[in-house]
Amino acid sequence: GPGLNKYAQAAGLKYFGSATDNPELTDQPYIAILSNTNEFGQITPGNSMKWDATEPTQNTFTFSGGDAILNLAKGNGQILRAHNLVWYSQLPSWVTSGSWTNATLTAAMTNHISNVAGHYKGEVYCWDAVNEPFNDDGTFRTDVFYNTIGQSYIATALQAARKADPNAKLYINDYNIEGPGAKSTAMINLVTSLKAQGVPIDGIGVQGHLIVGELPSGIEQNLAAFAALGVEVAITELDIRMTLPSTPALLAQQQKDYQTVVAACKAVSACVGITIWDYTDKYSWVPATFSGQGAACPWDANLGIKAAYNGILAGF
Ligand code: XIL
């Protein structure tokens, strides 16, 4: 195609990117497209920098999976969004079923952050330092970190990440914050309070796991409200799924929906980039997660471009 990253950069964004995952790295035709910097200027590791992958037993770190994806990106001349440091999901059982006090879990969490972000120091564009801290109603998710440490785990995590890699931009990343609503308001309140306390926070990541024909209204205004806090904004995990089987009508609506999201980011100067949560239906996480749904990506399972691809170009 003409090039998603080329169009994004011509429109003033820093990058258009894709997630990828280690099992896919042996698929040569897949890698050829992923490595084309006309299409992708940025890569996110879909799994291999998460806590269960990097610290499966306490204080024993494995970086081989994450390193493989960083090396691919570096070899291609692409930047890397590192994902993630603190999240309720994909935690090893020693974290979820440990008997913690505030002090011992704070120590384990900051040790995780200083080792993982320290290993990648100077190599990554940003970290999703805290992932998915909110419930959909805007209350804090009651995971092991919140329950043991309280809301301050977020500030502590950000401070530890800044110390470990002073040049990485630090994001809080969440889903269902594409449009205005209780969860977006909660994000605004959190970032406002972090900034007031002098806690390092550089960006709000808007995941963008959306449904064809069901985009929230007010995406552009919502991104602008985030940007008004003095942080950058990124669409970090975009995919737009449908109930299978796909039809020409659904694929046409999907094209429009991709265009809408891209145009909203383009319209907000602090929206620095857009990442799709893998570029092809061949490797999308959607069918395994949302039963009966799929076809969420701009490339089909045979690595052919879909109408959605043209929707992205049109959005720029
Ligand atoms: C997903 C991966 O794509 C899957 O392979 C894995 O089984 C589960 O996690 N929000 C996030 C991502 O922040 O880390 C998730 O990635 C998708 C939802």
From TrEMBL:
Enzyme Commission number(s): 3.2.1.8
Catalytic activity, reaction form: Endohydrolysis of (1->4)-beta-D-xylosidic linkages in xylans
Protein's cellular compartments: Secreted
Cellular component terms (Gene Ontology): extracellular region
GO biological process, one term: xylan catabolic process
Residue ranges crossing the lipid bilayer per the database entry: none
Keyword annotations of the record: Carbohydrate metabolism, Glycosidase, Hydrolase, Polysaccharide degradation, Secreted, Signal, Xylan degradation
A GO MF term: cellulose binding
First-tier enzyme category under EC: hydrolase
Domain GH10: 7-315
Active site: 237
Pathway membership, UniProt: Glycan degradation; xylan degradation
Family named by the database record: Belongs to the glycosyl hydrolase 10 (cellulase F) family.
Protein name: Beta-xylanase
Species of provenance: Sphaerobolus stellatus (strain SS14)
